[in-house]
Design a protein that fits this description.
With 151 residues, the chain is mainly α. The protein has one domain: Arc Repressor Mutant, subunit A (Orthogonal Bundle). It is globular. Helices cover 65% and strands 11% of the residues. It has a three-stranded antiparallel β-sheet.
Length: 151
């Protein structure tokens, strides 16, 4: 396969883009992991609580896909969070077949503080980029993701 070169001689092939993207992701991952670790929550528990913080109460079956957990894994995660007193399960008004998960007062306090610290850590990790660079990167990553999802 012939490599695509830009005017400055840089490799712009799909495989090189993938490699650079993965290296950047791997470099950012420890920053996220360390800030999440400080909450004393596991990664999946943090993701569930963060989704509930920003989306509000959700049916159990819609939480999993939002945080990349399988139906079995989300059930275990919710059970664990209920046991810790961080979330509660409630019947949805008007449809008792639907069980909603929502933050408890204790869960909201924990994830509010934890997410604030996580956001600060991630802000520090990406501080090398200007606002315009961030917006361009966001636009391009969304475009790439949408295209890849269709393919």
């Amino acid at each position: 396969m012939k490599r695509k070169r830009t005017t400055r001689g840089q490799d712009s092939s799909g495989v090189h883009l993938w490699l650079v993207f993965m290296k950047a992701f791997q470099a950012l991952l420890p920053h996220a992991a360390q800030s999440i670790e400080r909450t004393k929550l596991g990664d999946s528990d943090f993701r569930v609580l963060e989704a509930l913080l920003h989306k509000g109460p959700l049916p159990v079956n819609t939480v999993g896909p939002k945080v990349w957990l399988t139906p079995g894994s989300i059930s275990v995660a919710v059970d664990r969070l209920v046991e810790k007193g961080l979330v509660s399960r409630k019947d949805r008004a008007g449809d008792r077949r639907v069980r909603q998960v929502e933050l408890t007062r204790k869960g909201r306090a924990l994830i509010t503080r934890g997410f604030r610290e996580h956001a600060a850590a991630m802000e520090n990790a990406v501080s090398v980029l200007s606002k315009n660079e961030r917006l361009a990167l966001l636009r391009l990553l969304k475009k790439l993701g949408k295209h890849a999802a269709k393919s």
